[in-house]
Amino acid sequence: MGDTSLNSDTFCLARQAIADKELNLIGYELLYRQNQTARTAHIDNPLEASARVYSTALLDLGAAHLGSGFPISINVPQSWLEKPELFPAVTSKVVLEVLEDTEVTPEVLGSLKQLKSKGYTIALDDFTLTDSTHPLIEHAQWIKLDTHQYSQDELATLVQVLKAYPVKLVAEKIETWRDFKELEAMGFDYFQGFFLSRPRIFKGHKANTNQQVLMDLMQQLYKDDQEVEELVATIIKDPGLTYRLLRHINSAGYMFNQEITSIHQAVVLLGQERLRSMVSLLLWSKSPFKASSQLPVILVRAKACEDLARFYQVPEVRSSFTVGVLSSLHIALGMEFDQMLTQLKLEPLIAEALQGKGTLGEMLDLVIAYEQGDWEKMEQSRWYKPDVNQVFTQSIEWADQVYQEMKAG
Predict the structure, then answer these.
(1) pTM
(2) CATH number listed for the domain at residues 11-196
(3) pLDDT tens by residue, 92-147
(4) Other CB atoms within 10 Å distance of the CB of residue 178
(5) CA 52 to chain centroid
(6) Which end of the chain has fewer CB atoms within 10 angstroms, the N or the C?
(7) Comparing C-alpha atoms, which of 373, 402, 217, 198 is closest to residue 299?
(8) Is 103 left (phi over 0), alpha (psi -120 to 50) or beta?
(9) CA distances from 170 to 67, 177, 183, 189 (A)
(10) Going by CATH, does the domain composed of 209-408 fall within 1.10.3210.10?
């Protein structure tokens, strides 16, 4: 068989969050595409080679780095299901999604049994209950339903039938918060869709004291001429923030020779970028709008925007991380996007980028297209070329590391 080693420009990986009823993150569906422009060696068996590339990219790299301890969900076509020997045993949480067009044969059912014994969780994607698909249920732990495929009555009836089985029901393609509430009431366990990236608006809400301190601090961190003393004065207004910052700087990850007890010293040692990450995390974690499932997404977006700007060495690189963070911060704050822009009083460069204008706005659009697995839109961007795929993968690894550090700290 030919060489199937992976180059940084051979594939694109993105992920979409899956949340539970409390909107806590419980896993990701991985979106994958091998580049049409990728360099490939001569391969005797394209199907087998493709499966091994998929396995290497998503199981080896993905389970270790992309899932961040959560299950990762992968679409698997029938042609691969019929070759269970291509899938290595796993100790990480990997969900294999059986596609809706899979023909239910004795071979497929036997393969699912083998894959479960290797440690995989089996999900039935876009499932339709018929006499022929019914045998799949005993092999599944998740059943995913396309909520657009049924009327409300049909969907409610199907949910009640499937609740009789020991499976988790996943509602897919949820567009609005109203849809989420209706599907939650129906009995779904997990939820997936673009509704998670939209703000949950509560009229009349005002930021509490801790949130206001964090918003003030964030605005200060984006100023070019910000004095350390002013940052310190803002931080000490929130005792909880002061404690958490000192606890974080004294964690094992920094390994300073002596304990850091000064907020001024902590601010200097952490630096602006890490402080931005920490303040962003705290704003999301203190959000009353159950937006935590999107925090890793925002950290990935911010880092990808920054690394993309560094890759092209554009002069606006210093503001690129900020643009990524602010592009969805309104979700955590429970307010409309325009309202957030008014409160933060951003400099024109950042405000324009958040509206898709200028170099940073175009890069933000590229990163969002990547997030959503909109490969066609991504490849139409003038800032896209296969070499930047590595930027996206590395931003996921960085974001997960920061997310875990901040939660622990």
Answers:
(1) 0.68
(2) 3.20.20.450
(3) 688 999 999 999 999 999 999 999 999 999 999 999 999 999 999 999 999 999 99
(4) 10
(5) 24
(6) N
(7) 402
(8) beta
(9) 18, 16, 10, 6
(10) yes
